[in-house]
Amino acid sequence: MTLYGDKLPPADDRPTVQVTAVTWPATEAEPPRGTAGPDSAGSAPDPAAPRRGRRRRAVLTAGVVTVLLAVGAGAGGYAYAGEVPRGTTVLGTELGGMSRADAARALRAELDRRAVTLAAPVPVRIGDRTTEIKPADVGLTVDVDATVEAAVGTQAAPLSRLFGSRTVEPVVTVDAVRLEATLETAVGPQGRRMTMPKITYSGTTPKKVHPKPALTLDAQNSAEALREGWLSGEPVTVALVEKHPATTAEEVDRLVTELAAPAVAAPVTLTTEKGSVTIPANAIARSLSFPADKAGKLTPKLDVKKLRTALGDKLAAIEVEPRDAAMTLTGGKPTAVPSRPGRRLDDAALSRDLLAVLPKADGRTINGVLKPVDADLTTEEVTQFGIREKVSSFTTYFTGGLSSPRSKNIVQIAKDVDGTVVKPGETFSLNGHTGERSYKQGYHDAPVILNGKLVPGVGGGTSQFTTTLFNAIYYAGLEDVEHKPHSYWFSRYPAVIESTIFYPDLDFKFRNNTPHGVMIDTSYTSGSVTVAIWGTKIYDSVKTEYSPRRNITKPKIIRLEPGPSCIATNGIDGFTQDAYRIFRKDGKVVKREKFTWTYQAEPRFVCGP
């Protein structure tokens, strides 16, 4: 069939492309020169015909491409309008085609619309119990900016952005620490605390405790469950998980077999250039421990301080303790007592080497290294402190002479403190200086106040020295750091400005707040104790002004069972009073400090009916 009856149209009038014969892009072979093509109908060949065909096909191709590019450009412009891909929704809100800022505003508007729902308590199941959590209490919220970034996502292909749709889940945040604290109260008895592994000694016998896992919450798992389930409208299930200690039961057994038991099976010999010391099994047991960290990991540790205590005086045969420089009065003038360096075992090396040898059955000998140790206060330092004059002095009085236990305690603590030098800026602690006052240090049983009544106790009477020392530093103008007056007032002490002491709970401390060193000088007679502070005067005078006593209370009678622990008293009135410390310099008051104390009425204790 032809388009023009039975004849083909002239060559110049033919369609450029026969649709039924085109495969795009079309190619056409040029017939050989001098031969007639299939459409020549016997005519002579036209040399320009192939060029015109190719030109027309090029024009057609360019037109098609132009149309496609125009369509693509329009579609691309539509698809890529804004920063969020078309068809993107979050919480049912269309964000597609919006900029980040517009998307954030639209999402916040949706969250505001749902504010009541989002603030509602969230039911949470933990095992067989259910509780409710308020989102505000645990920082449960939708992170708008992070959600918009998730919505922007990776730039998709144009057709995907043009025709696709997607739902982006909101980014939910929660404070895992606050959540865990809130949920822990709801766990109840279904939870189980972790049993930590433990190795201790009963004498020289190792005792072990095998670990057991905890049944508890995992903070991160709980937070993830809440983030995923919050917006579903359904109760959120939080799982209880087992948490095992880092050290297993098998490892506890191995530590006992390989270290704890052989460690105390025999003594260890410590050798030094100054001689040898035997470390007995009981000293090893007192100093070797297996502390567990928070994860339940046991780590062997040798505490040299405890080892030294357990060895007592044994190390004195090989060590020389350093001696601090001190001050003493010679002919009424302060002079320096030189310091002396010492030699002590290297504690770090001792701990390391002793731990290494404890698992062994034989060859239990270690070499100790003696290192030089300087005094904390050298002679050069103490001579430069400016200790040259008496700044203050205070005396209190006692009865019974020097033979009574109470008097002996006063004298003993005065000797312990005598000659002590306190550096500029340093804080002096009376408990820290003397340590626990015991029989070994020369202290005796004498009445002390305990729970509001007088009972026998080691070191009774040291409060009188404490009061004497407090008043000496008070009138020297030094800084009061810690002191506590007695519960009852005793006439041998100045009211308000006095202090008790009890190891280790009640201490007396003062700070040398001057640019000069100070020396504590103590002395005593058969009926008094005196403390003088030497240094460099800062103030012309320090005096006390008292307010009248107020809130007077009378004692009541309390009857106690007779016996050696009962000490009878006559009773003392209670009252409240103020004491003002007045500092004067260059004839003027430069500072005032107020001290106030309320004394209880001391009951009249009667022994017997």
From TrEMBL:
Keyword Transmembrane tagged: yes
Low complexity composition bias: residue spans: 36-46
Record key words, sorted: Membrane, Transmembrane, Transmembrane helix
Keyword flag Chloroplast: no
Domain YoaR-like putative peptidoglycan binding intervals: 249-366
Region feature (Disordered): 1-55
Coiled coil feature spans: none
InterPro entries: Glycopeptide_resist_protein, Vancomycin_resist_VanW, YoaR-like_PG-bd
Transmembrane segments annotated in the record for this chain: 58-81
Listed name of the protein: Vancomycin resistance protein YoaR, contains peptidoglycan-binding and VanW domains
Species this chain originates from: Micromonospora inyonensis
